[in-house]
Design brief:
The chain has 266 residues and is an alpha/beta fold. It has 2 domains: 205 residues, 2-enoyl-CoA Hydratase, Chain A, domain 1 (Alpha-Beta Complex); 47 residues, Orthogonal Bundle (Lyase 2-enoyl-coa Hydratase, Chain  A, domain 2). It is 45% helix and 17% strand. The chain is built from 10 helices and 11 strands. A 7-stranded mixed sheet has the order 1-2-3-4-6-8-11, with helices on both faces. A 4-stranded mixed sheet has the order 5-7-9-10.
Length: 266
């Protein structure tokens, strides 16, 4: 059963069964990130982390022709030069870490232009699909800045140093098809099919063993820095935890009884 949550200033939040759907809703500003954007997003993350909240997957999408243009430069008008380090530590960094630490799988459906910190938002999610007309842009260098919000962490790991350098230093657009080839997103679909495909994916993930999915995310993240020996031990610890979960017991019983498992995300 679907129901609407409280209204927000820059985005909308609804629940469809155990899937939370966040829709960025500043289409006239290409859903750029302003102060209210970060307040809204943090409120949503807090709501999704609440122990009583039954949500088991998050889907993020956007209204209009663009997904997210990154920072809203109009919102930063004032004293020059601005203290960008404070803005990053207060707003952008907590948003990225909040997404990465969310205890449910995250899916992003990209409807159009995605630039700057908007790309970081995409990269912080577990699975990303995009409409054919979407494109990606590391726009920072075009205004004399360096990539932030985790861009220099995510992109070299996702696409390799050579391609990351090219995107960041040249500041040129990357098409949705190129983004699939590079490994930034997993699939390109027609615009008319984007939300259907994304919801099908979100609903599937919401019925899977949630803790195992989040553990997979953490293991993949740790593998970038660990030696093989360290990663083997990290896997052993994670598997021990998974092996004591109710979902593991359900999975085994379902296998033995030759029926589909009914996971509870526990």
């Amino acid at each position: 059963m679907s129901y609407s949550a409280r209204p927000l200033q820059t985005m909308k939040l609804i629940y469809d069964d155990t899937v939370a759907i966040v829709t960025l809703s500043r289409p006239d500003a290409m859903n750029a990130m302003n102060g209210a954007f970060f307040e809204d997003f943090q409120d949503i993350l807090s709501e999704l982390r609440a122990e009583a909240n039954p949500v088991r997957a998050l889907l993020i999408t956007a209204e209009g022709k663009g997904f997210c243009a990154g920072a809203d430069l109009k919102d930063q008008a004032g004293d020059m030069p601005p203290d960008l380090a404070i803005l990053l530590r207060k707003n952008y960094n907590p948003l990225i870490m909040g997404l990465k630490n969310l205890p449910i799988p995250t899916i992003v459906a990209i409807n159009g232009a995605t630039a700057g910190a908007g790309m970081s938002l995409v990269c912080a999610c577990d699975i990303a699909i995009a409409a054919k007309q979407a494109y990606f842009l590391q726009a920072f260098v075009n205004i004399g800045l360096i990539p932030d919000a985790g861009s220099t962490y995510f992109l070299p790991r996702m696409i390799g140093r050579a391609r990351a350098v090219s995107m960041m230093m040249l500041g040129e657009k990357l098409s949705a098809e190129e983004a699939v080839d590079f490994g930034i997103i997993s699939k390109v679909v027609d615009q008319d099919d984007l939300m259907t495909e994304a919801m099908t994916l979100a609903q599937k993930l919401s019925k899977m063993p949630t803790k195992a999915l989040v553990s997979i995310r953490k293991l993949l993240d740790s593998s970038e820095e660990n030696t093989l020996e360290q990663q083997l031990e990290t896997e052993a610890v994670a598997q021990q935890t998974a092996g004591h979960s109710p979902d593991f017991m359900e999975g085994v019983m379902a296998f033995l009884q030759k029926r589909p498992p009914v996971f509870q995300g526990k």
